[in-house]
Amino acid sequence: GNSVTQMEGPVTLSEEAFLTINCTYTATGYPSLFWYVQYPGEGLQLLLKATKADDKGSNKGFEATYRKETTSFHLEKGSVQVSDSAVYFCALSGSGGSYIPTFGRGTSLIVHP
Amino acid sequence: DTAVSQTPKYLVTQMGNDKSIKCEQNLGHDTMYWYKQDSKKFLKIMFSYNNKELIINETVPNRFSPKSPDKAHLNLHINSLELGDSAVYFCASSQPLGQGGDEQFFGPGTRLTVL
Fold first, then answer.
1. How far apart are CA B73 and CA B101, in angstroms?
2. pLDDT tens across B24-57, in order?
3. Taking a C-beta distance cutoff of 8 angstroms, is the pair A48, A64 a contact?
4. How many CB pairs under 8 A join A and B?
């Protein structure tokens, strides 16, 4: 079956540091890949997505590139802010004829001033 | 102009009670979902409806029963609540699966506490 593996958190950084949150997946075919963000006390919201190999999704300074050869979709940001503190979820859908979404376990990011 | 709304936001109740959570979306989507998020933030899909028809039913106790009166609403009824049901429940919607329906739109969540 499909699966998504994210690095365990929490990830703790100082403001303006570089962020990487690793995400790898197992799936058949060519799934769509997503990063969702959950701010404290809120629901998840889409941060960025990529629908085919080598696509780069980007939003709010965050980027992730769909790497088919390494089955990865790592999230990066060059300079984090305190307001980026949240839980980040990697997800996929559309694999092997199944559109049941598969989420990773989430990675908590804490950014200190 | 809330896209996906849930009520109530907080629900505190005793073991053994029956409770319902309501969800409404105004995005015109055909597909709606219920997710359960535990204290470690792990997100598990419970049910999905497409145009009022059940299409995903993961391994969930029979005490949980979804109901979709129309495609804009998906309610969750829980019978005989147990301590382990304490969690945050999220409703979500999307375009139909397999028709570009990949992005999920989530509600703000309902925090259920069973005492």
1. 18
2. 999 999 889 999 999 999 999 999 888 888 887 7
3. yes
4. 53
